[in-house]
Amino acid sequence: MDVRSQISMVFHLDKCIGCHTCSIACKNIWTDRKGAEYMWWNNVETKPGTGYPSKWEDQTIYRGGWEKNNGSISLKGSGKFKGLANIFHNPYLPVIDDYYEPWTYKYLDLIESPELDDQPVARPVSLITGKPIDIKAGPNWDDDLSGTPDYARNDPNLENLSPAEQEAMFQLEKMAMFYLPRICNHCLNPACVASCPSGAIYKRGEDGIVLINQNVCRAWRMCVTACPYKKSYYNWHTGKSEKCILCYPRLEAGLTPACMHSCVGRIRYLGVMLYDADRIHEAASADDNHLIEKQLDIILDPFDEKVIAAAKANGIADSTLLAAQNSPIYKFVKEWGLALPLHPEFRTLPMLFYVPPLLPVMASLSDAKNGAQNDKLNPIAKRWDDNWLYDTSTEELWGTIEKARFPLQYMANLFGAGDTSKISPILKKMMAVRIHRRSVTVGDLSAEKVNSALTDTGLSPEQADAIYALTSLAKFDERFVIPPAHREQAIEMLESTADEKGSTGFGFKERPARGV
Amino acid sequence: MLYTSFKNYNEKLLTFTILLSLIFNLSEFLYPQSAGETTFKGICQACHTIGKGRLVGPDLINIQDLRTESWLIKFIRSSQSMVNSGDADAVAIFNEYNKTIMPDQNLSDAEIKDVLSYIKQQSTGAVVTEVQPIVLSTGLTLEQARDNEFTIGRKIFSGEQRLTNGGPACISCHNVLNDEVMSGGLLALDLTNAVTRLGVNGVHSIISSPPFPVMKAAYSNHLVTSDESFYLTAFLKNADFVVSLQEPAAPQQIFLYAGIIGGAVLFGVYGTIWWNRKRKSVNDSIFKRQLKSI
Amino acid sequence: MTILNNFLFIALPYIALIVFLIGTIYRYKSKKFKYSSLSSEFLEGRKLFWGSVPFHYGIVFLFFGHLTAFLFPREVLLWNSHPVRLLILEVTAFIFGITTFVGLIHLFIRRKTNPRVQMVTNKMDLIIEVLLIAEIFLGLWIAYGYRWGSSWFASVLSPYLISVFTLNPQIEPIINLPLVIQLHIATAFLIVLLIPFSRLVHFLVFPLSYLWRPYQKVIWNWNRKKVRNPRSVWSVNKSRNN
């Protein structure tokens, strides 16, 4: 057992309102530089939708991630021989038009324009060429456009949905959507690291953050292809790849990453997880329908005496162990089984987990030809001629989940490698928590019903309360449990202070010498 | 810091060493230590004899009595510029020897004078008009050479039979119009009529000790043996003779066409190997539909 | 003429080699960030395919062809001793030469006409590209006009190059070669000279080591066991990450 620690995250999609505050916080800190304008280390997508870059999930186009063959795994679009053979022209590289051409406006024209018959306008100019452009696409161009043919219907996750199910999703009054915020998953089996010919990308041993050494990167561009989440971006100006650094300078100082700190919906959780590095390959090469359990399997119980002993033997600090025990991530992922990795079938073992959204599911569709449904309507309200009806009641318990207007299969394609049986227990648990809390706060549900809901999902009332508390009431320190970086033992995480004493400036460090 | 300065010191040392050796070798190159004899044997001997008859060029016996020293220095330096400037003697010699160009020699006055004094020193005895006959080690003379010898010569010429001392095959640089030999190189002169132009003795002498700098460089460490010179001379003599009876395919543009067609095929191969490459943006259809203001 | 010849074939090679050696090492040590292939495929990938692939595969073939003739002249002559094999070698090299040339011309046109690629083009890129075009054109001319170069390279140019590297340059055969070949040689050394000042350095860091490194790479900033051991000495070593 090779116990290592990993900074891991949970995004609670039920709470995401799609405000993009996270993206802006990230952009302002890290990517408002030349060549990085188009990079959104953090972005928020509307699902169903094509995402950013367009159709990033479609690996027949981009060839990202790993694929299983003969019991082992290999990189889909790169790898040792394929990568070197394709080094002169990477055949699957996304180009700038798959993202968008970054632009700004000539604001000065608004102010300094002479008096004319017409209003002055600020023309958009390209941030690449500096020439006026027609804006063709933007970073969140499919925002809230669920149902549109260009975006929602081109969503790769609709693949194995029946045409009827797909049609149902896009009818105006039935349409539903949710938001999917994405950052780098800081995977346990990162494809970007494996694909980098120069060896510039590495996983930090201490906290599992995946970083690109800018001095070693040589612009061979394989990581951009290899990352199935398209979270490695090529800086066209510097000729280096860049990616989310999980705000490691902030983490080392005990601060939360900017996107998480700024999250308005408080959907983000961050904490430490312990895992067994010896079994990474085994977990990554599991069968499609066992991928999730195998991945959760190598995540270790931080309360287990054996795990603690092995962790200490491996040099993991006591403070890190304590953080692992208090980790909200461990609770969501392992204890309650509420969170799943995004697209586990890419086999990178992502360490960012998502609690699937219940809200678009909750309003179910029922065949409402019978009078009972119609009678449930307020007599003043219009009687629907349609033979379907939204049912947002909790009376049927799980009926709303099974017959959701948002097909479970779609959620399963996102979070369960296509297996709906991975999704429905989670949604049932979340529904059970609601039923339980409704009986606590409102008290209009029968105890029998509440009990059966809890026992069906295997939750105790205490657990349900704990889930409720961490979901709805959690304070900053409960959502973010950051282990100390232990600078006192390491002097500095990255540099020896004594070496750099007398140096100056940000970025490149030089001696403060006078003259040339 | 210590490491950095050490590194710089190393670099400086390396640079200095290289520069130093460069200077030494340059001086050695620019002022070679050579007496007239070595120069004559190294450069002149291929085309000229002293008292043993004419080869490619005239016999140089008693040359100091025929021409002035300044004329000789000028001629040795650059015979062609003298011919072009209309010097009567130079033009006469040029025409007498089938307009064979004597290569310019990059020699100093002192070196040329050394050579001339060597020639003067050697100019004893009677002038011989007939040169030594060319014979094979078995005693076979050139006149007796037949198909068998011609074939061996052809194989040596085309490289099918390697030169004993590892020199490059003649075909690398020379072309000969012959049915049985493929088109040769174009770096040096066409040898189809070499025997007519230079005579068998001249050809043999040039093969044995090449006077032309490039050829000299190629064979200086890979001398052609006397038997090989014999076979080659025999082949060239025969080739010169039979060319009028044959209709060899003139050097064609096949090479060029093969390159162009092959290049096109290679492009096709690249296109096939990467047939499944991503050709356009996934947003292409959306972009194309949009109205353009620019 | 002597001065010019001495400059082109004695001084230039040494200047080029020294500048190349010191320049590339200095740049690698002190400006590592600037070692990059500076790919522009991200800005324009479609046309790049028909330029970059034929050019790179061609230039790699030609480079190793020249290198082989330089390092193993005897073996090349042995291979060429059969006319058919000579023909195969020459025609193959010529084909790669033509695709390299066409690919490079294509790359040059793309660089000059695509507005996005223009934004990531500097003067040195253009100088290098023009020099390479000239060099490859001269090479094709030599292959066509002074054919069977693979043989005479091995017997005439290899000795010259070896004499350069053994610090005893013999230029006598070189200065008597046709002007085209002389230009080809001089341009080659000029390109070598410019390598440390251009993007060409990227071929020096071709990631061959990728073939034998494990796929995953984990770096601990310090020895994680030692750093937590109170009895270990405090080390002035830099973290392994830096």
SSE arrangement:
The complex is a heterotrimer of chains A (516), B (294) and C (242).
Chain A: E1 3-12, H1 21-31, E2 43-47, H2 59-62, E3 66-69, E4 72-75, H3 80-85, E5 103-105, H4 108-112, E6 124-126, H5 163-170, E7 178-182, H6 191-195, E8 201-204, E9 210-212, H7 222-226, E10 232-235, E11 240-243, H8 248-252, H9 258-261, E12 268-276, H10 280-284, H11 291-298, E13 299-300, H12 305-313, H13 318-325, H14 328-335, E14 340-341, E15 352-355, H15 359-362, E16 364-367, H16 371-376, E17 388-391, H17 399-402, H18 408-415, H19 424-441, H20 447-457, H21 461-473, H22 476-479, H23 487-490, H24 497-500
Chain B: H1 2-30, H2 36-44, H3 63-66, H4 69-77, H5 79-84, H6 88-96, H7 109-122, H8 147-158, H9 194-208, H10 213-219, H11 226-242, H12 254-273, H13 284-289
Helix pairs in contact in B: 2-7, 8-11, 9-11
Chain C: H1 2-30, H2 46-71, H3 73-80, H4 83-113, H5 115-119, H6 123-145, H7 149-165, H8 172-175, H9 179-194, E1 218-219
Compact summary:
Chain B has helices spanning 2-30, 36-44, 63-66, 69-77, 79-84, 88-96, 109-122, 147-158, 194-208, 213-219, 226-242, 254-273, 284-289.
Task: Walk me through this protein's architecture.
The complex is a heterotrimer of chains A (516), B (294) and C (242). Chain A has 516 residues and is α+β, with helices and mostly antiparallel strands. Among the domains of chain A are: 3-100 and 137-252, Alpha-Beta Plaits (2-Layer Sandwich); 359-476, nitrate reductase domain like (nitrate reductase domain fold, Orthogonal Bundle). In chain A, 32% of the residues lie in helices and 14% in strands. Chain A has 24 helices and 17 strands. Chain A has a 5-stranded mixed sheet, with helices on both faces. Chain A has a two-stranded antiparallel sheet with strand order 2-7. In chain A, strands 3-4 form a two-stranded antiparallel ribbon. In chain A, helix 19 runs antiparallel to helix 20 (447-457) and helix 19 (424-441) crosses helix 21. Chain B is mainly α. The two termini of chain B are 57 Å apart. In chain B, helix 2 (36-44) crosses helix 7, helix 8 (147-158) packs across helix 11 and helix 9 runs antiparallel to helix 11 (226-242). Chain C has 242 residues and is mainly α. The chains are: A alpha+beta (516), B mainly alpha (294), C mainly alpha (242). Chains in contact: A-B, A-C, B-C. At the A-C interface, helix 3 and strand 8 of A face helix 2, helix 5 and strand 1 of C.
